[in-house]
Specification:
By secondary structure, the chain is an alpha/beta fold. Helices cover 32% and strands 14% of the residues. The protein has 11 helices and 12 strands. The strands form 2 sheets. A 7-stranded parallel beta sheet has the order 8-7-6-9-10-11-12, with helices on both faces. The chain is globular, with a radius of gyration of 21 Å.
Amino acid sequence: MRCAVLDDYQGVALTHADWTPLADEMDVRVLREHVSDREELVEALVDCEIVVIMRERTPFDAELLGRLPRLRLLVTTGMRNASVDLAAAAAAGVTVCGTASSVTAPVELTWALILGLARQVTVESRALREGGPWQSTVGQDLHGRTLGLLGLGKIGSRVARVGAAFGMEVLAWSQHLTAERAVAEGAQLADSKEDLLHRSDFVSVHLVLSERTRGLLGEAELRAMKPGAHLVNTSRAGIVDRAALLRALREGWIAGAGLDVFDTEPLPAEDPLRSLPNVLATPHLGYVTEANYRTYYGEVVEDIAAFLAGEPVRLLRAG
């Protein structure tokens, strides 16, 4: 059998797990570069029975599934992948399995972005390397400031605890969040989304992208934020209206943004988010850690072995 592992940017898929139990049963090929062209992708995968995908980088819709007649198993890292049409996969006879995923990794990156923005780390580090001025900015204190969290789930609740440890006032809001739940996680329930945006010095997004949350932060919401506030998004780009965010950053509605997720990934070379001075951006690194990758690829091997044994595990199904 043939197995393709997609989007292994760092070239670690085969070293972060023991693939030897599968050595006699399949030929594994690794694609280091992202393949965005649909025709090239079909050509690369058309002879494969098994495909391993990283998060939501490569959409598997009905059209693509229909062009891969040999495909029998699709394994995604994580137990949720909105870019896979699970109903179409089931109709095509393709089993879809997932893996566990760390919630601590995106929490840590969220705080890397918040701290980097607060202390102007990019500006000062660049000046130090390039012989620029010795100190040119005055950093923001976190102690005594307000952290606003849109979403207080597994990730948001951990971000809240770190904020409290810094001595920040922590506000939280989501459509079904209760005051009791917020208090239990060390936060205060904001009166509304607008109340949270108006009061917060740092706003961090921790919501699942859905029809309800897509475009949740548009022009009106970004204008409601303080001019000195920062927006951090390590969740999904579609939650924030891109055009409104670009205007907010260019026109100074907000002080800046820390971004790890983008509408198009990899981010095009000419994208303005690469060059705006008040943006601290990382290439979707929220889940990219040593321990998380060992979990991903270790469970990928388990998923494949279980499927070959006729007892698939960690199944993802429509609905």
